[in-house]
Design a protein that fits this description.
3-stranded mixed β-sheet, Amidase signature (AS) enzymes, 2 domains, alpha+beta, single chain
Length: 350
């Protein structure tokens, strides 16, 4: 259990400052007996929130021999915005900029991975809750196809996800949680289309520049073949809010039109690329009037799998994520395309 004890030591040392955890299960984790023949024997992982240990993904990881070391911070009461976390030691801190939030709602999971306390943490994503903190903490985050894995969310917007230090590290998660996992060989270059704002959002110019720069590096490395046709969706904000409020009929027209546009796009395109967020990590006082979810929640409505990979940093030291979206059900292909992107066009960290 060397890896588990190492993780517990890092948590004890780093978490008082970062406040990524709600609870740490020192004794249970360090004394847990695991069959060494299991595929994930002794792998320490964290779960999102106080109920995360009961999630489908956590149960599958446990069955594969992984060891839960604690539950991670999610937003506390008092705000309508969910891009922050409240852990045992206070507000969760972005490990790159202590004056900024890590994003959310999988805030603590992202910080636990980004700081090296654990290599894998579970998350859930109903509007960007995995991809946003992954982007703002400079790590990999995957939202699975809606309905692929069991979810307690009755609206159908939320799906299970995972946060890891790299896309390659997430392979173990997908192999574990999927009943049928088949290796996929990605043929390069991948046919892709880029959109800075999906036709309605207005991203921060520097965030857009960093994300676009990552796309250009991937094209130069032969990973992507970029289709110059523009991508335009209808703004999904009102439709998402209607579904969340239990009135899906109010957003049906926008949802249906965006589904038609995305079906047409993925008929001849393997990957849609956008900045993961329109903004850089905001301060602990909140995002103001800007929706950090502007570029993510369209794919909770449509159900497509989506990921965020590190794209680079703004001039003030904030991580930027590049969002990758694939066809429904193409989760393994999406992950392998993310692995290829990270391998061929790594970013330079400050």
């Amino acid at each position: 259990m060397t890896h588990v004890n190492d993780a517990l030591e890092r948590i004890a040392r780093l978490d008082p400052e970062l406040s990524a955890f709600i609870e740490v299960w020192d004794e249970k984790a360090s004394t847990r007996e695991v069959d060494p023949q299991l595929p994930l024997a002794g792998l320490p992982f964290a779960v999102k929130g106080s109920s995360g240990i009961r999630s489908y993904a956590a149960r599958r990881l446990l069955a594969a021999g992984a060891v839960p070391v604690g539950s991670t911070a999610v937003p506390g009461p008092g705000t309508y915005w969910q891009t922050w976390g409240l852990g045992a030691h206070g507000r969760t801190v972005n490990p790159w900029r202590a004056d900024r939030t890590p994003g959310g709602s999988s805030a603590g999971s992202a910080v636990a991975v980004a700081s090296g306390m654990v290599g894998l943490a579970t998350g859930s994503d109903g509007a960007g809750s995995v991809r946003i903190p992954a982007a703002w903490c400079g790590i990999f985050g995957l939202k699975t196809t809606n309905g692929l894995l069991p979810s307690p969310d009755r609206t159908g917007l939320a799906s299970a996800g995972v946060l890891t230090g790299s896309a390659a590290d997430a392979r173990a998660y997908l192999r574990c949680v999927l009943d049928e996992y088949e290796d996929v060989r990605v043929e390069l270059p991948v046919r892709a289309r880029w959109s800075a704002g999906l036709g309605f959002a207005q991203p921060d110019p520097e965030v857009e520049s960093v994300a676009r720069g990552a796309v250009e590096r991937l094209v130069a490395a032969g990973v992507l073949r970029l289709d110059p046709r523009p991508v335009a969706l209808l703004d999904p904000q009102d439709a998402w809010l209607a579904v969340r409020a239990g009135d899906p009929s109010a957003g049906a027209a926008v949802r249906g039109e965006n589904d038609r546009r995305l079906d047409a796009l993925f008929a001849d395109t393997e990957l849609l690329l956008t900045p993961a967020t329109p903004n850089r990590p905001h301060g602990h006082e909140g995002p103001g009037e800007l929706y950090s979810t502007a570029l993510t929640w369209a794919f909770n409505l449509s159900g497509h799998p989506a990921a965020s990979i590190p794209a680079g940093f703004t001039s003030d030291g904030c991580p930027v994520g590049l969002q990758l979206v694939a066809a429904r059900g193409a989760d393994v292909s999406l992950l392998e395309m993310a692995v290829a992107a990270e391998r061929h066009a790594p970013i330079v960290r400050p």
